[in-house]
Recover the amino acids of this structure.
């Protein structure tokens, strides 16, 4: 086997090992790359920042543990941002596994800012039905969610007083990793009811939401771990996303190196054959 | 009658939902709410049916014992444990269900997804080749976006993030819009075919 062929057919275990090192080393020994805030994230921040104290934000969690490293830091940063500004959070979700993650984010932030469940935040839980749940909640929230995630009647909670439908919600934020998710919130809550909607999505799905952002149907967009890290940067609070950006930078660099390296030998081999 | 009644139900439900969109007043707005409630109830039953089917399929696998049959034991045991603790203690924070979610489900699920990084790295080395001009274009765009979207790109050349943003905001957006419009037209035409009873494959598979 020639050197050229050897390089073309590198043992995949070497690639796996290099990938592991590219991720683990920056996590153990942070480099501290400076994070620049992009326009979609700035818009997201401004959408929350523009709300007066006492406003009510609906945060819908449409993600699960597999996408947690990307979306969970957004959830945490958003909860902190809202409580810092005395904004109340009504949590819900169209994915069942997003509910405990949203609850944990709110609880963590509530502890930091001295907020109380039922007064400053509530979690309405999961409801099966995807887009129809949005449509039903837009018309009648207490009917769609009569109980919170733990099975307590929502009339017990001060935060839910006066909440009839989406007219009583100031901003809707969907943190999603797929469907149902941001797309459906834009279609129903924004398109049909004219509500302000912002979103946080995984990096792989972010390109699909740029048209909504450009059209003004989305107030702002957090895309992947980078979006979460930028949001943490604006808030001045370093979190798991900011810490993960070093590892992501090096991993991206390594993958690009793999692509260029493999293509160099591929093109060289092609030329030799001629 | 086996086909006519479902076709009639589909036609009425479809027409009411279209009409309520353009005429959001009574009686259509009330009908929309009523249909929404029905849909939410039916969805729950669909989930129960799905769970029942999952249980049935894996019980059968245990009886027949094909290759990898013992994975079904893991699935059924996991299902039984989560179902039992969920039904007995509920899903609230601090319950056994919550404990299992955070200490078993989250690590396992994250681990499965984390494996993707290794496969992506391996695939990028083995499969991402500049074989044609189109593949080369895709390759160059991917590299520029990948490096432009991480802080490292800014250190290499401060214009890289701008190039990455430009690709996302112009060529990407144009392509996404075209795809979205295409999908929307497809949905409209298929929905109309179903509502008008032209498309009937959902009834019997024929």
């Amino acid at each position: 086997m020639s050197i050229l062929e050897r390089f073309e057919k590198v043992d995949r275990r070497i690639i796996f090992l290099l990938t592991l090192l590219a991720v683990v080393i920056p996590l153990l020994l942070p480099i501290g790359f400076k994070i620049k805030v992009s326009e979609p994230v700035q818009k997201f921040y401004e959408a929350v920042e523009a709300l007066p104290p006492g406003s009510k934000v609906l945060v819908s969690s449409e993600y699960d543990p597999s996408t947690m490293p990307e979306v969970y830091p957004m959830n945490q940063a958003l909860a902190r941002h809202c409580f810092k500004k005395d904004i109340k959070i009504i949590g819900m979700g169209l994915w069942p596994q997003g509910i405990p993650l949203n609850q944990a984010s709110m609880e963590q932030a509530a502890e930091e800012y001295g907020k109380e469940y039922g007064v400053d935040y509530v979690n309405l839980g999961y409801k099966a039905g995807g887009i129809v749940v949005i449509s039903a909640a837009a018309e009648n929230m207490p009917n769609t969610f009569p109980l919170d995630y733990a099975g307590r009647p929502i009339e017990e909670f001060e935060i839910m007083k006066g909440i009839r439908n989406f007219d009583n919600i100031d901003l809707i934020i969907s943190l999603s990793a797929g469907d149902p998710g941001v797309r459906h919130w834009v279609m129903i809550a924004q398109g049909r009811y004219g509500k302000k909607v912002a979103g946080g999505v995984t990096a792989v799905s972010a390109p699909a939401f740029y048209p909504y952002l450009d059209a003004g149907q989305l107030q702002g967009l957090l895309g992947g771990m980078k979006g979460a890290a930028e949001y943490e940067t604006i808030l001045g609070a370093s979190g798991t996303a900011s810490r993960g950006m070093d590892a992501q930078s090096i991993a991206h660099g390594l993958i690009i190196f793999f692509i260029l390296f493999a293509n160099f030998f591929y093109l060289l081999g092609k030329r030799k054959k001629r | 009658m086996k086909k006519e009644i479902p076709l009639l139900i589909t036609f009425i439900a479809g027409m009411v939902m279209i009409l309520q969109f353009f005429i959001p007043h009574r009686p259509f707005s009330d009908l929309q709410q009523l249909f929404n409630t029905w849909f939410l109830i039916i969805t729950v039953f669909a989930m129960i049916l799905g769970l029942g089917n999952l249980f049935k399929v894996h019980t059968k696998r245990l009886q027949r014992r094909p290759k990898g049959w013992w994975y079904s034991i893991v699935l059924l045991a996991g299902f039984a444990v989560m179902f039992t603790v969920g039904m007995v203690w509920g899903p609230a924070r601090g319950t056994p269900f919550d404990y299992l979610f955070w200490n078993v489900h989250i690590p396992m699920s994250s681990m499965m997804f984390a494996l993707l990084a290794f496969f992506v790295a391996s695939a990028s080395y083995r499969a991402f080749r500049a074989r044609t001009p189109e593949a080369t274009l895709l390759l160059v765009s991917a590299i520029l976006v990948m490096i432009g979207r991480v802080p490292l790109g800014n250190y290499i050349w401060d214009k890289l993030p701008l190039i990455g943003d430009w690709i996302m905001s112009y060529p990407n957006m144009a392509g996404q819009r075209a795809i979205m419009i295409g999908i929307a037209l497809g949905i409209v035409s298929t929905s109309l075919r179903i509502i008008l009873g032209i498309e009937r494959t959902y009834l019997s598979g024929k």
Chain B is about 80% helix and 0% strand.
